[in-house]
Design brief:
By secondary structure, this protein is mostly helical. The chain is built from 8 helices and no strands. Helix 2 packs across helix 4, helix 4 crosses helix 5 and helix 7 runs antiparallel to helix 8. The longest helix is centred in the last third of the chain and has 17 residues. The radius of gyration is 20 Å and the shape is elongated. It starts with 5 loop residues before the first helix and ends in a 7-residue tail after the last helix.
């Protein structure tokens, strides 16, 4: 994962805030964060959480993903497909919540198995057996999803 580059993030936030013609106080109020905290973020003194970045992005009407990339939380190229895939799964109205969660678990299992998951940087001694689907029993997960009754059938 890329390291946090909060100076670059702060400059970018200030530029976006000015383009939106918002004062620091107006943006802080719209994002639900304190004025001093937002000022510290803009000056590169604080590292905001992904949740705070999401609130600020919403208030600025810009993509939260853009802020995540600027903050070094997401690698722009490597993580974009993962974020989009998860968003599509979560937005699918034909799946219930349990099915979505099972599908996300299976998806993450395959990503880890192929060296792209959250534990991919841990190396071969990370404790996961590569033949095990990185800790998720895919057959059990699928069986569990099949036992959830679909009200439309």
């Amino acid at each position: 994962m890329a390291s946090l580059n909060v100076g670059n993030l702060g400059e970018y936030l200030r530029e976006q805030r000015r383009n939106a013609q918002l004062s620091l106080r107006q943006l802080a109020d719209a994002a639900g964060v304190s004025n001093p905290y937002l000022s510290q973020i803009e000056r590169g003194l604080r590292k905001p959480s992904a949740e705070v970045l999401q609130q600020v992005a919403k208030a600025l009407r810009i993509s939260a993903e853009t802020l995540y990339v600027r903050a070094g939380i997401l690698d722009a190229e490597r993580d974009r497909d993962d974020v989009e895939t998860r968003a599509v799964i979560l937005a699918d109205p034909s799946l219930n919540e349990r099915q979505k969660q099972v599908l996300l678990q299976v998806y993450e299992s395959f990503r880890k198995e192929n060296g792209f998951g959250a534990d991919a940087d841990a190396g071969p001694d990370s404790g996961a057996d590569p033949d095990s689907g990185a800790g998720v029993d895919v057959d059990a997960a699928v069986d569990g999803a099949e036992t959830v009754k679909n009200p439309h059938s």
